[in-house]
Amino acid sequence: MNGLLLFAGDASGRSAQSGNLFDLGLADWRDVAALGRVAAETRAALRAARQRRDIVDFLGEVVGSALEPRRGGRAVEAGELCAEAQRLLAAWTDLDAVLEGQGLDLQLGMAAFARDLVSYGRDVAPSLYRQLLAGDRSAALEALRLQVRMRADRATALAAAMRGFATRAGAFAAAFAGFERDPAVRIWLREAPELCLAYDDDGAPHLEPVRGGAARQFWRLQFDQAADAHRLRSAADPALGLHITADDKLWTLANASTPFGFPLISEGPPPRVGAQDDLPTGADLFRVPPRQGATLENVAFPGHALDVAEVQAGAPLRLWEKTGLPAQQWAFSPAPRTRREITLHDIVAPAAGLATTVAGVRGLRGDWNAVLDDLEAGLAAPEAAAPDLDAVLLGWGRMADAAEAALAEFEAEARAFDTASS
User: Fold this and answer.
1) Highest mean pLDDT among 67-76, 196-205, 223-232, 267-276
2) Can you tell which superkingdom this protein's organism belongs to (predicted)?
3) How far apart are CA 320 and CA 301, in angstroms?
4) Rounded CA gap, 74 and 367, in Å?
C-alpha cells in the first residue's frame, strides 16, 4: 500500500517505486489459517481411512508415524505407489510436519504482525508523527525508532518461519499438480497390443490400430468410490463415455440365468459411446481389473464381459457372456491408478488449492525498515518538502483497517483449526 511513507522523496531514496510496503491480502491470510484447519481434517481422514479394507495396505508405514498399521495388517512400502504418488506423499508429509510442529507459532506470529500494523496506524503514527513535525524531533524520532524496530524484529522472525512454510506448501502444490488422478490410457487386448479400443463418429466402439495415435483411442478411468467401479470417459471429449445401451428386454434377458447359473442369452445390449444422461443405473460403471489382462465387466451385467468377436481392426465391441478367452482379456497403458493412489489424491485434494495460495504468501514481513529509513532520511535533509501529514495518516488508517479485517478472518479460521486439532 502506497502513501505510508511520511517523506517518500529523493531525500530518503524511496519514492512511489517502493510499491506496497506491506502485502496483506485478506484472502491470503484466510488461506494460511484454513490450510492449518484442512490439514488437521486431512490427518483425521487418513486415520479414518485405515479402517477401510480396500486401502488398508496403503496406510501403515507409508503415511508416517501419525498412523499406526492396523494390528495384524501388512505394512506396504512406499515403492508400491507410482512415482508421482510417492512425490505427493513425501511433499504432504513435509508440509504436515511443519503445520504440526510450527502451526501455533505461525498463528501467533501472524496475529502479532497484524496487531502491530493496527496499533502503529491508529496509535503510534498519529501522535508521534505530529510531534516529529512540530515538537521535539529527537525524542519523537527515538520513540519511533523503538516502535518500528520492535515491529521489524517480529516481522523478520515471522518472515523466516513463513519462508519455510511457503516453500513446503509450494512443493506440495507442485506435487499435487503433477499427479493426475485420471490419466488418459489406452485399452488394448492383451494378445494384440497393436489394437486398442476406440470409437467412430456414430459412437460405435471398436478395435483400431494403435499406430496413428488418434485422440479417440484414449480414455479416462474415473473411479467412483461409492460404486467401487470406474466410468470410462473419452479423453477426446469428456462429455462422452462408454456405456451399455438401454434396452429393457435385453437388460432383463441378459441378467436372467439358467438353473445351472449360466446367462440366459450370450450377448447383452451393445456398448456405445455417447452422452451420460438418462442412463439406466450402472450402465456406465465398469469393474476395472486390478491386474493387466483380465475381463472388463459392466456392474449391471455380472455374468458378461466386454468382448470382440474377432481380434482384428474394425471388430466391434460387444457385451458377451464370460468365457475367459483372449477376446476378453484387456490391458491398459499406462496402468490405471490404484485405489490407494486415488484415495491419497482425494484425501489431500482440499489442502492443495490452499497450498497454492500459501506458497505465494511471502510479503508478510512488510518493510518496517523502509518506514524508519524514510523518517531518518527526511529529517536529515533540510531541503525536504513538507509532508502531507493528513494523507499519510489516512493511509496508515486504511492499513490498520485492512490488518484488523485480516486478523478477524485469520482468528476465525485459527479457532476452527484448534477445534479440529483437539
Assistant:
1) 196-205
2) Bacteria
3) 10
4) 53
Q: Which helix (H) or strand (E) holds 333?
A: strand 330-333
Q: How far is CA 174 from the centre of its chain?
A: 9
pLDDT tens-digit map of 352-392: 988 988 887 655 556 788 888 888 888 887 666 678 899 99
Q: What is the 3-state secondary structure (H, E, C) of 76-132?
A: CCHHHCCHHHHHHHHHHHHHHHHHHHHHHHHHHHHHHHHHHHHHHHHHHHHHHHHHH
Residue with cell string 485459527: 414
Look at residues 284, 310, 336 and tell me which one is the last residue of a structural domain.
336
Q: Which residues of 291-320 are buried (b: 16+ CB within 10 A; e: fewer)?
A: eeebbbbbbbbebbbbbbeeeeeebebbbb
What radius of gyration, in Å, describes the C-alpha atoms of the chain?
31
Does residue 2 have a pLDDT over 90? no
**Rounded CA separation 85/44 (Å):** 20
CB half-sphere exposure, 409, CA atoms < 13 A: 16
Phi first, then psi, for residue 393 (nearest 5°) are -65, -35
For 416, the domain range is 29-63+83-180+341-421
User: Would you give the DSSP letter of residue 217?
Assistant: G
Residues 160 and 194 reside in one and the same domain: no
The answer on pLDDT for 8 being more than 80 is: no
DSSP category for residue 231: E
CATH number at residue 266: 2.80.10.50
